[in-house]
From TrEMBL:
This is Cytochrome P450. InterPro entries: Cyt_P450 (IPR001128), Cyt_P450_CS (IPR017972), Cyt_P450_E_grp-I (IPR002401), Cyt_P450_sf (IPR036396). Keywords: Heme, Iron, Membrane, Metal-binding, Monooxygenase, Oxidoreductase, Transmembrane, Transmembrane helix. The chain crosses the membrane at residues 15-38. GO terms for cellular component: membrane. Belongs to the cytochrome P450 family. CDD domains: CYP71-like (cd11072). Its cofactor is heme. The lineage of its organism: Eukaryota, Viridiplantae, Streptophyta, Embryophyta, Tracheophyta. It comes from Pisum sativum (Garden pea). One of its GO terms (molecular function) is monooxygenase activity. It holds the Pfam family p450. It is found in: Membrane. The keyword Oxidoreductase applies.
Amino acid sequence: MTSLEITNHSILETMSFAAITVLAFLFITLTYFLFTFFSNPKQKNSNHKKPPGPPTLPIIGNLHILGKLPHRTLQSLSRKYGPIMSLQLGQVPTVVISSSKAAELFLKTHDIVFASRPKTVASDILSYGSKGVAFSEYGPYWRNMRKLLSLKLVSPSKIEKFAPIRKDELDVLVKSLEKAASVGEVVNVSEAVENVIEDIMYKMVLGRSKYEEFDIKGLVQQATSLFGAFNLADYVPWLGVLDIQGLTRACKKVGRAIDDALEVIITDHEQVTNVDKNRHEDFMDILLSILYQTTDHENESNDVIDRTNIKAILLDLLIATLDTSSTTIEWTLSELVRHPRVMKILQNEIQNEVGNKRMVEEKDLKKLNYLDMVIDEVLRLYPIVPLLLPRESRESITIDDYFIKEKTRVLINAWAIGRDPNVWSENVEEFYPERFINKKMNYLGNEFESIPFGSGRRGCFGIQMGLITVKFVIAQLVHCFNWELPYNTNPSNLNMEEKFGITIPRAQHLLAIPRYRLVDVELE
Ligand code: HEM
């Protein structure tokens, strides 16, 4: 065969492939129109009024309009279509909530209807078929696991028990920053904070410092972005086999690496526990103590907690603890550096309570009211999980005259709710902690004006542990150091762009120069 023949042959092949693709697309589009036109005629003629929403395209619905920062796109769409808005994400009917009043209806008044999570490719692969807590469907398994874990992992006495770990790890960070300060070094604050949180959480969850053999933080970050990605396979399941975005392949690859790491961690833990029975109890010990128990004593269910349950829960806990606290700290330091006025008031408050001859201790935190206001303001502007974790309606329901059918996905735009000018006044975009002077937030499900931890049955169960970690790190870092931006950057020019995923970290790492400000403090 000559080269010309080869070329012609391939063009012919390419042409027929293109023709087949076009024909297939036309066939699918036609089928879709016929299907949507003729299917469910009863619903078309009934009073089942859907919430308003933007026009949809065949097959993909509104998937194409989400953009790189969906929380922002959805906020501007809600200005046009209202706080309860319909979207069609591929084949999945979706409702987006963008006001505190609407959030209260979905997360409090009708919480039980929206207490489930949708099954997704990521939860199926990475969570061992949704066997963890955060991504599992509503039902006796989730209810019992959540009750058990809340009691055993994050009770006030457990939070107190882990205080020495938080103190020791933070001391190490302060020491290294003191060194950097003595030579005027530029510090990658984002990385430093990620590392200290990783060290704290490692010791708390696994009872030891990092494993050199594998990069758990990296794997957890990859899993977090896969959980947050809009995978076409979840929205147009028949396109799933093609895996056009490669996300299903990525889930399988990351899932295998995580499984290998978790196996090593569990085996290692079992061995250490056998040798030293009086060790300080960590999360992993608590999880292993429920291995082989049944999940539902009351109803005598036969579900036994096995190794895959333990691995799925462990991954949930690592995802829930690693990124959330460090990202909140990162945004807080960024806003403080941008607002020297606020930084000064906070430093003065700490200095008045603690003096400048010793470091902050956790017991000081309850006296620091301005610190509470600073953190509330950061959580209002940067709810770290901007769309919370998706919910799914367990049955059909009518809310505010809108019909929401069973298995509708519900996205709560916590980011838009915290920036609603009708609630937070015209200076809504401004970082202004004083707006919380007469407004004490407790995040226990009574306020809906700012919901960084979600709310209701599926709300975060680690709120107190998250808050104490964030407040302690911030108080220590601003008490021990003044912070300057490098390269003569004007604070008002600091880049504040975010990246989208389940969480929203800074798009660019925060770099700053620490200047030590305490006198005569001896770190052991
Ligand atoms: C600043 C730190 C934290 C923030 C901002 C945060 C935020 C959130 C948010 C927004 C949700 C979803 C709520 C919803 O869908 O309504 C969530 C769920 C969850 N969080 Fe947190 N979280 C933090 C720390 C923690 C910690 C330290 C733990 C564990 C010790 C934890 C464990 C969980 C779990 C298990 C869920 C899933 C709950 C369920 O589906 O039943 N979180 N968190």
